TrEMBL record, chain B:
<comment type="similarity">
    <text>Belongs to the ERD2 family.</text>
</comment>
<dbReference type="GO" id="GO:0015031">
    <property type="term" value="P:protein transport"/>
</dbReference>
<feature type="signal peptide">
    <location>
        <begin position="1"/>
        <end position="25"/>
    </location>
</feature>
<keyword id="KW-0472">Membrane</keyword>
<feature type="transmembrane region" description="Helical">
    <location>
        <begin position="97"/>
        <end position="114"/>
    </location>
</feature>
<keyword id="KW-1133">Transmembrane helix</keyword>
<keyword id="KW-0256">Endoplasmic reticulum</keyword>
<keyword id="KW-0812">Transmembrane</keyword>
<dbReference type="Pfam" id="PF00810">
    <property type="entry name" value="ER_lumen_recept"/>
</dbReference>
<protein>
    <recommendedName>
        <fullName>ER lumen protein-retaining receptor</fullName>
    </recommendedName>
</protein>
<feature type="transmembrane region" description="Helical">
    <location>
        <begin position="120"/>
        <end position="140"/>
    </location>
</feature>
<dbReference type="GO" id="GO:0016192">
    <property type="term" value="P:vesicle-mediated transport"/>
</dbReference>
<dbReference type="GO" id="GO:0046923">
    <property type="term" value="F:ER retention sequence binding"/>
</dbReference>
<feature type="transmembrane region" description="Helical">
    <location>
        <begin position="182"/>
        <end position="202"/>
    </location>
</feature>
<keyword id="KW-0813">Transport</keyword>
<feature type="transmembrane region" description="Helical">
    <location>
        <begin position="56"/>
        <end position="76"/>
    </location>
</feature>
<keyword id="KW-0732">Signal</keyword>
Amino acid sequence: DDVDDTKDEL
Amino acid sequence: MNVFRLAGDMTHLLSILLLLLKIYATKSCSGVSRKTQELYAIVFIFRYLDLFTDFISVYNTFMKVVFIASSLAIVWCMRFHPVVRRSYDRELDTFRYFFLVGASFALALIWHEKFSVQEVFWAFSIYLEAVAILPQLVLLQRSGNVDNLTGQYVFFLGAYRAFYILNWIYRYLTEPRFTRWIAGTSGVVQTALYADFFYYYFISWKNNSKLKLPA
């Protein structure tokens, strides 16, 4: 699930 | 983190520092849209709810706290600072921004990555950020003359968006399974809103003249 890694951007 | 992403974050930070510098050095917020600043405060608060739930890196946490604190400080100055608030262009800053908030929230309810409070608020913040510059652009257009620091503020804010697009292209090409539909689409819309401003900014830069936007 690649939802989480979106949030490494500001 | 790639070089485009870092350049994007740094131009974003620089834009905020320029705005704080303008307000602090000139004790004036003329030419600055309080509505845009309030929208950014809402954007950062709703996007960075994950400060309480996820830890990504010291850099990430630091930047989030800086963005929230600086946007609140700017709004506070424009509303309550005894000197600064007097220079606020109230009669020019009349964009109906509640419409933007409502439309962004409605879109977030329809298009999100997951139907949870945090994910809907995250999508809401992305959509709202895409259009948050509109009151500022309208104010600049109405006032005609743009002072240097305010012009540079908007320029670096636009540069931050452009670098983020390069960052996504880079990540798309180098990372398998990389997609950012919500952030990417909104980012392109957001950057496009600056196109007109960029055009006049470069003309004034090339002619070494004061930035003027046509009415």
